[in-house]
Specification:
This protein is mostly beta strands and 191 residues long. The protein is built from one helix and 16 strands. The protein is globular, with a radius of gyration of 17 Å.
């Protein structure tokens, strides 16, 4: 946050827009891949979609939302919640699928670069890989031992999943669930 504050308030940087409309804290924001839409997830149990000029486009219901992310196609939105579910919305108009991803909170999500796989990270320390091609099905359930998974990312070649954890490390996993490497050195939880 200090780096963001420095960038926003440093000479030469100007605020472009303020997206105001939530009635509680913002938990997550995400840009669509095409840069045209911004999604914000709030403790007010909504996800709001905005155009880049700051105009509110749509409000989606999202009880206990933890994170929101756009798929690479800029049309699908994944909303992760504290009840362990993930909702997939298409073009922000239609709830396509809602499924139980974890028994506890889903704290983080990431789409593979091709958009065919969704990774979810849970309060339980697991990372799950979901096939999104036809019906939602689990490809792999990676059981970690590092505490809650606070952030996820795919490598550009889609061969490695990085999981940021509460135990101050980043775990690098392959698609088979094999731990490739654990990256340490942080002094606090990694997001």
């Amino acid at each position: 946050i200090a780096t963001l504050r420095e960038a926003v308030y440093s000479p030469g940087y100007l605020e472009h827009n303020t997206l105001a409309g939530h009635s509680a804290s913002i938990r997550s924001v995400s840009f669509s891949q095409n840069g045209q839409i911004i999604a914000s997830a709030s403790d007010d149990d909504t996800v709001k979609l905005w155009d880049k000029s700051g105009k509110e486009l749509k409000t989606l219901p999202a009880s206990g939302v933890q994170s929101v992310i756009f798929a690479p196609n800029s049309q699908t939105i994944a909303i992760a919640s504290d009840n362990g579910t993930i909702q997939l919305w298409n073009d922000a108009e239609k709830l396509v699928q809602s499924f139980q991803a974890h028994e506890l909170s889903v704290l983080s999500t990431a789409f593979s670069p091709n958009g065919e796989i969704l990774a979810s990270g849970g309060l339980d320390g697991s990372v799950k890989l979901w096939n999104l091609n036809s019906k939602i099905e689990i490809l792999k359930d990676i059981q970690g031992d590092s505490g809650p998974v606070l952030g996820l990312g795919f490598s550009p070649n889609e061969e490695i999943i990085a999981a940021a954890t509460e135990d101050k490390t980043v775990k690098l996993w392959n698609y088979d669930g094999k731990l490739i490497r654990s990256l340490g050195g942080h002094t606090d939880a990694v997001r």
